[in-house]
Amino acid sequence: MVMSWMPMCLVPACDLDRAAWPMALAVIAPDLTVTRDGAPVALDRLAPQILAAISLSDAGAATLARLDLRHLRATPDDLPALWAQLLTEELTAAQARNVKQLRELAQLRQLSETSLQHFERLEAFVWQTTAAERHQVTHLPLSDAVLDLTGVEQRLPSDSVGLSDLAVFVQDAGRGVLTATLRLLESDQVVGQWQVTDPGPGWLRLALPRALPMDAQTAILRLDWQGDALSLGLSHPHPDPRFQAHDGRPLALRLWKFVPGTLAPMAPDAHGPGLPKWLVSLDALREAAALADDPERVEVLDWAKGLVLRPAPGQTIAVRLPAFARPGMARLQGMVSVLGADALADLAYAVDDAPQWQRLTAAEPGQLHAQFAPLTQVQDLILMARVPDDATSAAVVIFEPIEAFASDV
Amino acid sequence: MSDAPLLAIIIPVYRHSVLMVEAVDSALAQEAPFGIQVVIVNDGCPHPETHETGLALARAHPDRVTYLKKPNGGLSSARNHGIDHVLTQMPSVRAIYMLDADNRLRPPAMARAMQALTDDPLAGWIYPDIDMVGLTSGHDYSGPYSILLHTAMNTCEAGSLIRREVFDAGVRFDIAFKAGFEDWDFFLSAVQAGFRGKNIEGMGFLYRKRPESMLADSEREREPILARMRAKHRALFAPRALLELEQEEAPRYAFYLSDLGRIWLTTDPSEPGQMLKPKDYALRLWQARAAPGRFVLPPLTVVTQSVTLTALRRAGVLHNMLWQLEALLDQSHMAALMVSPAEGERMGFAQLMQRTRAPDDAAVLMLTTKAVTGSAAVPIDAWMETLTSDAPKPHVSLAELTLPPDLAGVPQGAASGLLQLVALMRGAPWAKAATLTDWREADLARRAGSHLILRRRMGGQPVPPMLRGMDRHIGLLMTIVEFGGVEKVALNLARSFKARGWKVHLFIAAHRDAALGPDWRETLTSVNFLGDPEFWAWGEGDRSYFGNEIPRWAVSGNHARLIALLHGMDVVIDLHSGAGVAVMSQLRKQGVVTATSLHLADLSALGRPSGNPFLGLAYEHAFDLFLPCSQGLGDWLHGLGIPEDKIIPVINAPSFPIAPDVLTGLLEARQPGPRLRALFLGRLDAQKGLERLAQVIARSRPLPIDWRVIGKAVLEDGSTLPPAVAEVLEPALTSPEALTAAFAAADVLVLLSDYEGLPLTVLEAMRQGVVPLATDVGAVCEAVGPDTGFLLPLDGAVPACLQALARLAADPALLTRLSQAAAAQARDWTEATEDLSRVFDALTATRSLSTDSDIPPPAHLADLSPLPPLPPLDLTPLAWTRLQPGTRAELEPFVPHEGFLQIGAPEGSGVTCTLETRLVRDRFGRESPILALRPKGEPQPWSTYELVLNDLALSQLTALDWDIRYALVRPRHLFAQFILNGGGHEVTVVHGSLLVGQIGARTRLRLDLARLTVEQRRLLTKVRLILSTDGELLPLDLLDLQVTGLR
């Protein structure tokens, strides 16, 4: 039951029967105990409701005189006028306060709207002009231990500020549905939820569209599995029980962060709500290079900030990024360059159909584009480079991180 | 959900007229399955807006918000105003949360905190981690609550949920703390009232951090505020209490016992501590590395073997060696102790200044646990591996302990043991992952250096790891222990106080080794070397007190080191330690009873009296007692300004005992022979008047006298013994048997000294009927008179001595008469120390069992011995509870007759009690039953509770130990006394104030039945333990009550 404010008048008990009182009363006894409707109540607690204190006798006046109520003291004759005066004063003051606060609220609203507009422009600028990458901040490596999953909770070894992605390692895939829930301990809020059907083996990356805000909290990941057996990779034993998911070990885990509270392109291999932009990051290129079987000709070099391919004349090299072409994707673009004296090469992003080759020489670093009909299913993305048979020298080709766009961007 | 609130949030407001809305809003937005009342306290804020906003909030939520306005009195006053309002007006409220007006709560915070409080009946309050907004950061306060840590830092945020019982116990915010840290003070008061805190993680408390805040102000004024807090919570900050806390909460040492393959955690190696397998210890080690604020790990690691600890313990040096190593460790990476055999019955300690020994020769190695962890964290630590090579890279401070050969046979190889420990830790499964840490900063990382908390209280010096327990400890401070008279007095003091139940400790300030034979070792609890190379008893002083030099060390030495060494004693007796007097004043302030045992004044080269008695005059204020060895010296001290009350003569007595039947036999066998047998026995130095002795020997040749001179020449100025003396010189005797035989073979003792105190040789000779002929110096006249011997004037001593010898040689009857009179004057040390013992009992009962001399004892227990019996109390039994027999190993479990214990409150005390049993969980999650004795009623001037054991056969016992452990609330002041009744007799044994024993929720009371006569023990059959508080109603939650009898 919610009570509302009831203005009332404080009267001494000895004066209670002497008049018909026009408003709600609190009665004060000579020992200064106060009752309302016959029930004892603390004067302190009642004070905000008392608008007037009235005595009709010397004894009553003596009782009230023991309290600091001078500003409330009145006589019965005064009461109607006083009542009107008090209400008027209260109303006037409340209106003045109300107007003042509305004005302040308006100022704050304008400031907030302006800030939001500026933020939206800034975010759009970042979105459109830079290959803003979600940064991996934590990597708990895989050990040889696994967890047969039914349900498990993992406290994340990082605060929530800017958290954007996390990945667990599926050791043995099964058929079924994996439900992942990300909850913040302190506020007990769920800030992310994913359902993945028939997850394949390997790192399973789960992405939030917008990095979590500045409010630092402890994030807890809960995973529940329904289906055939599914095992997750565990990391090395950790002594702190807070981080132990199973058998004294945390899950093998990777975490990414981005600017708190902002949108960022998603990794194509991440599960999450659809965004019209993806980013094939340097880390993704590095993992693809690791899958290639020719480390002499395929590698990621940090100084080059990209994937380096070294095709010989007449040779074509292709690097596969498994399942990196996502439904809705219709356009790819990224910086490419060719190094080497008199070097030239044909480069292409291949998705679905035949590659659209684009020739590049050492003198012409630039962007490589690919445009295709919006994809309807997951496919592999292939980066290709070849050097013509008649070329006089080998080429060094660099693919930098690739932005991918939906058709409507 | 009931309308009656279960929890109140008090929000004091001063100058936060706008931000307060956020605080109130966050309080109103709590998601909790119980009612929450918000109490806004306007602390006389000068902004009218505060009043308007407070009124508006109260009017908007009349059922959930109470608005109180009061004149400005500061944060503490405002909080107290709100608390008092809640306590008087809201009986349904079980806990109160303190929320400052510029802070906020997340919605689940109060539900979580209340659940934690409900789940843990041992928790008095729930304190949060602190997530700061504004200047953003997160701060982790997780892990077990530690009182020790709380004395060093403010570990509990005011924004805590506090159980109503804490306030019911009278704990409030101190309005004198206006510059901050009032919350620190509040929780320490709660600790002293018996409550403990508990952290919950992620509670949801948001603290507005500004570049400048009240907290920043208090940090600036930290020292004065801390000084005030230490003064207010003396009992908690007392070094002895901190050491108890260290043992209980954060043991200082991890002993790796390589022969057992176990790690033992303890501060005091006389305490049981905790023994762990390497795997279990490795888990703790890596936990502490991952979260140093959350997990407790001993800061120091000691590598040794169990047999070594046993040997050091038998020698009485274990605590001292740990202390020495800890001090050495401050200067190096590690500290190593070599143990070597001494030549004979001697013990010694010295730091080896050069690398003369290899670390692996050490029997004990100490290093920081951080160094162990650091080494174990890398796959190969080449630096550490060199420890067992010819060229070790770690800097190891080496020290050598020499012990009598039968104790010195301890194994070496401590460095190898260390590498073994590191390998064990490195091989643990957690080593790879322990770098993963929580995102909040570990604000309690000071746990890793918990031993430094006590150090800071002791001037930065390591503190000996010796707990006092419930025993009484007496320390003898000496510069040298050889075979001199002062040493003999010291040994006999030690024996007599040991016989009275004291633990006796020897402290050797100057010399690096000492003659400590079995007689000493059997008497002493511990032997301690100061190990300060700068300490010299005398010399190099550039100041004097009425012409007597003040030694340099007394003015500018490392006093803190000696104070740290001695502070744990109840009594310290200075035995001619010279410069050691400089620490006595500080010790006295810390509650130690200080006494100086004085024997004689030295003479300077030109004959000016000087030495320890004069130094004692200079430091009169530092001593509680002066213990002259003679009445004459006592009179001298009084004449020179020592108050009479402070002078307790301890008159010398023979230094070694002779069995009564043996002595009787010796005296009966004594018969004058045809030739007089004259003896000089003692140290042969200039003081002894050797020239006079030589003249007497030479000039007495015509007389029928056979001379023996027994002793060791210690002439310092290069002079030689007079030929007449050297001709008859025999080697010194040290054993009681040899001395007895020497006196038995003598008729007269000749002692022609320039100066003396009251020589023990004279007393020992007289005991066996040897007639003394001694110069009238010092207090010789108190032992030698015309009826017992010849007191010779110093001037003219030679002819007087010759005359006396001639008379005795010629008059066997005179010799026999004097001999018998001399023997009749025998005295002993028990008698000599009787007065002193009584004074010590009185002083220590009022001082050392409490923790600070400035806290007066309660009036009715002030005079502890003797105390008139209390009037008998008519007990009304409330319940009967089966007593669990004790299980302690060292004492035989005592099963009381019928196995019942009666607990009750005195009739007419105005107090009624309810008794119940319930399960409680300790902080380790272990459940145990407790007996909860809940008193109700008006507090009396003295509330008293009795625990009674009936029908005991006390004659079979020498002591009863009562172990009492409290669950939740411990009275602030608790006093105990035992009353024994039976056969119409009543005897009261008052144990005294028990504040020290209260730290850590456990109290041990020992009823020393040996103080009673056998006849009394036969008659008495009922033991009543009476626990009294100073008016506080004592909720006696007994976690454990064990009564153990010692037969």
Q: Care to describe what's here?
A:
- The complex is a heterodimer of chains A (409) and B (1047).
- With 409 residues, chain A is of the alpha+beta class.
- Chain A has helices at residues 43-46, 58-65, 79-129, 282-291; strands at residues 8-12, 25-28, 34-36, 39-41, 50-54, 73-74, 135-140, 146-148, 151-159, 163-172, 176-184, 189-197, 202-207, 218-227, 231-233, 253-257, 270-271, 277-280, 298-301, 306-309, 316-325, 329-339, 344-350, 358-361, 366-371, 379-386, 396-406.
- In chain A, strands 7, 8, 10, 13, 15, 16 and 17 form a 7-stranded mixed beta sheet that branches. In chain A, strands 4-3-2-1-5-6 form a 6-stranded mixed beta sheet.
- Chain A is elongated, with a radius of gyration of 36 Å.
- The two termini of chain A are 54 Å apart.
- The mean pLDDT of chain A is 87.
- With 1047 residues, chain B is α/β, with parallel strands linked by helices.
- Chain B folds into 5 domains: 5-237, Spore Coat Polysaccharide Biosynthesis Protein SpsA, Chain A (Alpha-Beta Complex); 244-457, no CATH class; 473-646, Rossmann fold, CATH 3.40.50.2000; 660-826, Glycogen Phosphorylase B (Rossmann fold, 3-Layer(aba) Sandwich), CATH 3.40.50; 856-1046, Sandwich (Jelly Rolls), CATH 2.60.120.
- Helix content of chain B is 31%, strand content 26%.
- In chain B, the strands form 9 sheets. Chain B has a 9-stranded mixed beta sheet.
- The radius of gyration of chain B is 34 Å and the shape is elongated.
- Residues 848-902, 920-924 and 991-1001 of chain B have low confidence and may be disordered.
- The interface between A and B is large, with 37 and 45 residues.
